[in-house]
Automatic annotation (TrEMBL), chains A, B, C, D, E, F, G:
Subunit organization: Heptamer of 7 subunits arranged in a ring. Interacts with the chaperonin GroEL.
Record keywords: Chaperone, Cytoplasm
Function: Together with the chaperonin GroEL, plays an essential role in assisting protein folding. The GroEL-GroES system forms a nano-cage that allows encapsulation of the non-native substrate proteins and provides a physical environment optimized to promote and accelerate protein folding. GroES binds to the apical surface of the GroEL ring, thereby capping the opening of the GroEL channel.
Name of the coding gene: groES
Provenance organism: Chamaesiphon polymorphus CCALA 037
A cellular component annotation (GO) from this entry: cytoplasm
Chaperone keyword on record: yes
Protein name: Co-chaperonin GroES
SMART domains, per the entry: Cpn10
HAMAP family, per the entry: CH10
Subcellular location as annotated: Cytoplasm
InterPro entries, sorted: Chaperonin_GroES, Chaperonin_GroES_sf, Chaprnonin_Cpn10_CS, GroES-like_sf
Amino acid sequence: MASVSLTVSTVKPLADRVFVKVSASEEKTAGGILLPDTAKEKPQIGEVVQVGPGKRNDDGTRQEPEIKIGDKVLYSKYAGTDVKLGGDEYVLLSEKDILAVVG
Amino acid sequence: MASVSLTVSTVKPLADRVFVKVSASEEKTAGGILLPDTAKEKPQIGEVVQVGPGKRNDDGTRQEPEIKIGDKVLYSKYAGTDVKLGGDEYVLLSEKDILAVVG
Amino acid sequence: MASVSLTVSTVKPLADRVFVKVSASEEKTAGGILLPDTAKEKPQIGEVVQVGPGKRNDDGTRQEPEIKIGDKVLYSKYAGTDVKLGGDEYVLLSEKDILAVVG
Amino acid sequence: MASVSLTVSTVKPLADRVFVKVSASEEKTAGGILLPDTAKEKPQIGEVVQVGPGKRNDDGTRQEPEIKIGDKVLYSKYAGTDVKLGGDEYVLLSEKDILAVVG
Amino acid sequence: MASVSLTVSTVKPLADRVFVKVSASEEKTAGGILLPDTAKEKPQIGEVVQVGPGKRNDDGTRQEPEIKIGDKVLYSKYAGTDVKLGGDEYVLLSEKDILAVVG
Amino acid sequence: MASVSLTVSTVKPLADRVFVKVSASEEKTAGGILLPDTAKEKPQIGEVVQVGPGKRNDDGTRQEPEIKIGDKVLYSKYAGTDVKLGGDEYVLLSEKDILAVVG
Amino acid sequence: MASVSLTVSTVKPLADRVFVKVSASEEKTAGGILLPDTAKEKPQIGEVVQVGPGKRNDDGTRQEPEIKIGDKVLYSKYAGTDVKLGGDEYVLLSEKDILAVVG
């Protein structure tokens, strides 16, 4: 297997998954900014950078994703799989783990 | 990703989720007021400030939310995800975690 | 959020939930009275004071509640959420946690 | 709430539940009698004294109970909720926790 | 409740349950005989002596049992409820806990 | 119950179960042979010697098994029930616990 | 049972399973390469080398796999069953445990 040079554009989430760039915790501690209840917790806000094709139903059709690229989202801190790409943190989430669009 | 200046109006819950402002515990310890069995427990009353579009069925239709903005609700103390916004406490709940409308 | 002055009539359970006033344990230890196997356990009898609109089916219809206001009910001691209101104890239960109507 | 004077005839199980009078363990240790593998275990035989209306299907119809009043039944020792009534032991079981009719 | 004199023929399993007489462990340790991996484990072979009417579907029909009286069966050692009857060991199993017919 | 003299041909798996003869671990440690990640683990390769009639659907039809007698299969090491027969090791598996046909 | 000489081409995953060759961890620590959050974790990238026929629906039809041979995939580190073949590491995964195609 050849070496894999990954960029954000080469990551294609399956089914109802979305690829989210985790926001730096600095910008979340500023005044008037949504932040987790406990400052020690992992970041819970991010920006959607890739969206899967949607959950597949048994009849072959798909559920249209509710999330689109560019959405700022709040997600459950224990959800998904963390990945790093070029020094930045990302998380692969199922759409159901996204609690709200926040921007 | 640019800085996110959040206000209550920018939080858009997904699916059957609702965004609830937690009531200060002071007003709940007054006489004649509903309060949790154990005073040491987390607040369980709040006011709904945002409501998601409703749970999506497999055929693409949605279940109309039973909750509306402004409802005072009683919710299970272990449910949802706590968030802070401008010094106030909020919680993102699924509608099924709301036990009763209390005002 | 303004202060919430709750009374039993302002509590409106959602879906298939019922609001039950817990019977004082004194009246249950009298002769000929149903009481839990272990006297140290929490009360398990109460009187229904509010009933939700019934569980909602996926097609939007509701299942008619089997319980009505005024029913004395026996319920599972680990079920529901305890609340206090004006010095009395109440519990918010799902109808499925009610085992039998006992009066 | 007024005092509740319970008798067997006032207990009306909901859905697919049955109300069972637990057989005294004495009669089960006699020769030729079905008894649990371990003598120290709780009684597992009883007589059905009340039967609920049957499990309700989503379309509002009910599943006819397979058990009738007077049946001697064998049930799983960890199932149900124990209650005492007038000095006798009873158990509220779901029909699915009844393993066999034994008389 | 009168005393219950049980015989195998009076045990009527409900739904998809079967009543199985546990084979004595002696006959299973003989040469050429199927026996559990660990000799210390509980017997796992028995003979079906009673069969329930079959699992009931939601529409009221039943699934015909695949097991019949007289079948020698291999069953999962942790399944079912052990009962003794006249000095012999029996087990009440769901048909799904029977792994294979072995004779 | 008479003594049961079992042979492979007398074992008839129910539903979607298959009866698999466990491969001796010796032949799996040779070069070029598939073997578990940890040599200390239980064997995970075997040969199918009996196949059940297939999983029964609610309407009475069956799902045709994907596995046939003679298939070499890789299966999850924690799946199924171990049995011994004439000194050899066998395992009764559900078809869903078979990961791949390997020969 | 004769000895089994396995090669990648003889491994035929069942249902919705895929057979994946695990990427060497060396190539994943290079600059600009996707790598797990914690360097100590097991590799989570691999190349699909075999694909099963797809998950079977109850009516006998199959869900077409979304993955094809040659895809580079990111998968959950706790998913699947590890196997070794000719000195290389492989993993048998269900398609639902594949998070994204990454090349």
